[in-house]
Predict the structure.
Amino acid sequence: MGQFGIGQPIRRKEDVRLVTGGGRYSDDIQLENQLHIHFFRSPHAHAGISGIDLSAAREAPGVHHVFVHEDLAADGVQDLMTDVDFSDRDGTKIRRSRRPVLARERVRFVGEPVVMVIAETREQARAAADLIQIEWEELPAVASSVAALAPDAPVVWPEFDNNLGLHWELGDKDEIDAIIAGSAKSVTIDIVNNRLIPNPMEPRVALAEYDAASDRITLYAPTQGVRGPQAGVARLLGIKKEQLRVISPDTGGGFGIRGKLYLELVAVAWAARKIGRPVKWLSTRSETFVSDYHGRDQVNHAVMGFDETGRITALHAETILNVGAYMGENGPRLPIDGGGRIIPCSYDIEKFYFSVKTVYTNTVSTDTYRGAGRPEANFLLERLMDLGAEACGLARDEIRRRNFIAPAKMPYRTQMGLLIDSGDFAGSLDMALKEADYAGFPARRKESEARGKLRGFGIGSFVEQSGGRPVEEMRVRIEADGSASIFSGTFSHGQGHDTAYAQILHDHLNLPLEQVKLIQGDTDTTPAQGVGTFGSRSSMMGGVGIKRTAEQIVVKATRIAGHLLQSDPEQVRFDEGVFHAGHATVTFKEVAKAAHDPARLPEGMAPGLDENWVYNRHADHFNFPNGCHICELEIDPDLGTVEILRYTAVDDCGTVLNPLLVHGQVYGGVAQGLGQAMLENTVYEEETAQFLSGSFVDYGMPRAHHMAHIAAYFNVVPCKTNELGVKGAGEAGACAAPSAFVGAVVDALKPYGVSHIDMPVTPERIWRVIAGQAA
Amino acid sequence: MQSFGWLRPRSVEEAAEALGNLEDPKLISGGMTLIPTLKQDLAAPSDLIDLGAVPGLAGISVEGDRLVIGAMTRHADVAASPIVREKILALAVLAGGIGDPAVRRRGTIGGSVANADPAADYPAGVLGLDAEVVTNERVIPADDFFVDLFETALGATEIVTAVRFRIPDQAHYIKFPHPVSGYAVVGLMVARLGNKVRVSVTGAGSHAFRVNEMEAALEASFKPEAVAGIIVDPDELMGDMHCSAGYRSHVLGVLAKRAVAAIASPRP
Amino acid sequence: MKVSLTVNGAAVERDVEPNTLLAEFLRENLRLTGTHVGCDTTQCGCCIVHVDGHAVKSCTVFVAQLGGADIVTIEGLAGPDGQLHPVQAAFQEFHGLQCGFCTPGMVMMGADIVKRHPCADEKTVRHELEGNLCRCTGYQGIVEAIMHASGTKVETH
């Protein structure tokens, strides 16, 4: 491993550009002659549309076009329907919603786009939208999943009779319940896992232009990989993929939601072709609040049994997922493939019943957000373990130790079939306890008490599943000057692939990092089987892809070197950028030059050093980031305010490619986890499903002063199912922090007899517990 | 944002005349509340009258028993002012806790006071420090100034030119910032002015108000225990999805005790 | 209306509508796209620039208010020879950025903080960043970078 290779904390190559204002994000691009789009969105949560009068809007200054659903339908634009395929236990298929690009006859949530206005300026388009006259027939609405399941609830999709989109089950409920009933101890918990708004800092943008000569649309937009949106938008427009080029320049954060097929992309691409002029839509932050996918919004109920020694006997878990008005791309995949498959998380549980209900409501659709089901599952299990410790009279670390999946039992297959290859859960717990000075906690608690404060200590063990879709393609091209271009299917939008991939390549080719260029985010150059960056997959799928591609390059370069050195390639050795055959040498740079000159190549060899590799991963070969985070905090009992005093993170992300980048992923995940735990809450008015938390003034984003310094450590156990040994890092923090934080709050509030407190744990909620009122 | 005309008067008189003559004008000083309001299309004035070029509106001075702060003085300048820190440290603390550093760099005391946002900090200072709001037409005592939500005693052509704070014997400002927005959920000032005590509150109600019962109790005995048990009726307070009126009432009581304690037994 | 100001050392004179915000002016009229807009409620700080040497949210100032002002944006912070400002260099050193979208505002705020708070401690920096949102970094690298640039010793990887 070289000085700039794997494992080194290399500073990011991309940073100088980004800290000097040299970033190029989608809204930074202006096309000549471009017009501006404003979407008129529904102010109602649920209403029929009995008439639309666009005449005044069409006459408004600067307005070029005003389009509604029928205009798109006339061109054959399709509705969006998820392809998820699940059934109820009785075989009834999942009830799938159809979502038109612009509303047809009815709106089902506040913010649903109804009319597209195109004008000379953004301000003119927005002003014209005020002149749109719509006759609404207001309908009763429902916002929460539990309320939507009530027999008399307003129905979002009348064709389905009720709001239950799916009731999926796993395991024998009666058997599990009997085991629990016969267990020495059992604990029950009910959790509302709060709905979150992912809020990448760059608001969404779409800019499209159409070239009539080639009959091709070019669409610029921030994504998490261009191939998915290309396929999706082309499908809905009814055109061939080749007729749509998607370009993602610098992208300001993703967190799972950015990779989705947003219908605004379809509308903007369609409009560019329809009117023959470039069009741009730039969302405001207020607009992203009601048009970006939301995350979480689960209601969980679980019962866990324990034997006399504190060993888990069985788990009965029920999850209700609020999918919103329209089922997103993933819907039930979130609690089932994301959450259910990873259950039992860190623990060895053989008996398990799991029920998942997905429910339609008059709210924004939910989909993948940092962790996508795994944070919810881990939070549920960790809360149960804390309750179990109390019930069994064991310390919270001890009950975990007694139930962890032991390394000796790995590979360990979960009930839903995941194969956890490796992990040292008890080792990470012990390391975290030591670094967090668990032994000194009682003394620190006393000291807090003396100051009138309540001190708490919380443990969040976790394991999650990374890797995502099992295909990815990478290509490396060596230029004639010896530099390298990486064409990646993955898409860096903050993760630092520019640097990490160059480090991997450096280990194989000994190239200086500045001679490696990452080319991504353009369907004209992205490898055909490229997928993108989500599910913490890029270190594995992209990393292994680079490694294999580099190896192929070395093989070919060695043959060329042998030819140049007039030696048998078998006898040529490649070491630190130089090929040796006996005493004769040739540098990699010289070989690269020769590779581009057919006259200098072995007979029959195609010129160039340009290799690609498609990673078709075995179905069992995910990876399982895991670890243990500990939060120590202090509560002011007079006000209910919380201060985090110490946060310790021990992560097993497998082999660490670059500790600077991996720590960065952990910190960011922890901040989002703590945001969920302390602050973030999406609020709909229950009676009307009006949206109440639609700006940063109302929605609690974690700020610098909410956070504490995070002391981060690694407990490296290389992954056994990929040759780099890497595991994901991006979602770990979001899986660990909520349980560490809530566990610490509940621990601090022990004198008040509370066993659980829902997120976000606001000062008022804590005060209510202390004041003896319902939280 | 709607379009509007722009005037840049060179004197207060000129500004007042414009206020009287234009269709639906608004004054702009720092713009820290007005501009976000315009961006959300929640206001659509015909013209903005920019006070930025009017000379003499910014500055800090002492006149007798009063600290005088010109209307265009920025929050950051009040917070950092050696005079303010010496004469009324609590006011410097208050100004240093408004919004965030970039907002404090633009926002002005005159704009804040005239706007009378229920969650703004300055109104608690104005009421608690028995200030006078000086306008181009008259001097308005603090107790008559704040009328209701975003409503003050200012007339249509009246422009705040300065705020004259009484320099107290002792004062303390304490704020419970909103966990989400940072605005005051409760901002509370306690001030001792001779044998009088003032307790003023912002953030909790529709406008800043005094808590007479606490003031009387503290005038009788200036100790934290004196205000214990005095509860401001939650029915008179505001609530939102993060902090209910009942919680605000509770926080108000806790902050009052702490502010009194900070004055009665200052930490070394 | 006509406004004249100095932007990154160069005199600029333009005709603008009175409702032109400084952020729009920089991005759309001058094509200085390093200044970003991340919200519409003056909360996120992505748009912070320096006006007469102080950090200001350019999304909440009209150009009309700024006649004669001296504006410095992220593009003008480094030295003329390309030498990074200490805060810019520290953001790279301490991994104070990921996606880079909040970064211009963070760096401009950081440059203001280090001027006012030599040898700033962690609490001061966190408090001073109250008006800046970041969704990627958990703020850790940002806080460390600003502390370091202010002269405080910070452990590094």
In short: Residues 197 and 641 of chain A are 23 Å apart (CA to CA). The mean pLDDT of chain A is 97.
